[in-house]
UniProtKB/TrEMBL annotation:
Pathway: Amino-acid biosynthesis; L-histidine biosynthesis; L-histidine from 5-phospho-alpha-D-ribose 1-diphosphate: step 1/9. It comes from Puccinia sorghi. It catalyses: 1-(5-phospho-beta-D-ribosyl)-ATP + diphosphate = 5-phospho-alpha-D-ribose 1-diphosphate + ATP. PANTHER family: ATP PHOSPHORIBOSYLTRANSFERASE, ATP PHOSPHORIBOSYLTRANSFERASE ATP-PRTASE. Coiled coil: none annotated. GO terms for molecular function: ATP binding; ATP phosphoribosyltransferase activity; magnesium ion binding. This is ATP phosphoribosyltransferase. GO terms for cellular component: cytoplasm. Residues 234-302 form the Histidine biosynthesis HisG C-terminal domain. GO terms for biological process: L-histidine biosynthetic process. Residues 60-230 form the ATP phosphoribosyltransferase catalytic domain. The keyword Transcription does not apply. InterPro entries: ATP-PRT_HisG_long (IPR020621), ATP_PRibTrfase_cat (IPR013820), ATP_PRibTrfase_CS (IPR018198), ATP_PRibTrfase_HisG (IPR001348), HisG_C (IPR013115), N-reg_PII-like_a/b (IPR011322), N-reg_PII/ATP_PRibTrfase_C (IPR015867).
Amino acid sequence: MAFLAGSLNDRLLFAIPKKGRLYEKCLDLLAGADIQFSRSHRLDVCLVGNHQMALVFLPAADIPRFVGEGNVDLGITGQDMVAEADLDGLIEEICPLDFGKCSLQVQVPISSNITSLDQLSGKKIVTSFEVVSNSVFKELDDKVNATRPDSPPQKTLIEYIGGSVEAACALGLADGIVDLVESGATMRAAGLQAIHTIMTSQAVLIKSNRPARGEVRQQLINLITSRIQGVVAANRYVLCQYNINRTRLTEALAITPGRRSATVSPLDDSEWVAVSAMVFKKDSADTMDKLQALGACDIFLLGLVGLFKAALGFEDYDADFIHLLRPSGKLPSLDTYIICGHNLYWYTHFLEMQPRKNCKWHSAKPSSLPFH
């Protein structure tokens, strides 16, 4: 342990939730950004093998304070945790990470007659989000008291408990609660309903606003930040490629404008062009339908997670990446899916024609591919 502590002096420190709803997703994100480490279950600190960096595993609620006070340089936690830490000016939210999505809501028993937030003024609220709740209900109390100047002022009582918040109303501890809701199943099972949403939340990458300790560390912060943003974008988009008649090009580009602009390349047939554009993954099926209706052909969707890995220099791709490319249970064939290089214009890998249990990848020159 003394050796580990001494090894942290010159390393970038990156705080990760040690367990809970964000932990597994964080591990996937780190793997996508090529942050290599091996964690002992007995230690909450581990060294990264391929960067001058260490990971620090902390409760998600503690990460904003560690980052804000400069104890660690980067962190991943929920936006709800950042709001609860109340460290404005000390923390910068770099980018949302598109996982851990939930809502912080005010909930009351379904059997109660309470249907609006105003009805909870002066009552008892139980929550794990004491700071946020006090802010919300102080504003509410001030508004309600202003409408009743001749009545005694009301003050809502906020009481903190660390867990099982949804049981508070059933046990007679509170008139309402403030708690996180993901699917709403736990809320409904506890006989509760939401009457007000305080905020929506998701996992977010944060950094300390204190100056980085040294230029090298700042460069590493920029590198890791850029990689994580790339992984998030890769999970959000797919690359759509298709051929279209020049007479329909303007209409096609309206469907696939790309992030900045689409790439249009000439074909041997002068009446046709090839188009490459990034489209939102969630809209990809509708995009394909619209392009096909417009007369586009040879429409391909390529998973950008794999393209990002190629940009980092990986040569082997695991089954998870293959799964991102296949629209069904069958592995893609050579004439269906081709993997692009990192600049998205030339091709570097292709799948074997025959599906195998352990798939392998082989290099190919662009000239050996069926289209170019």
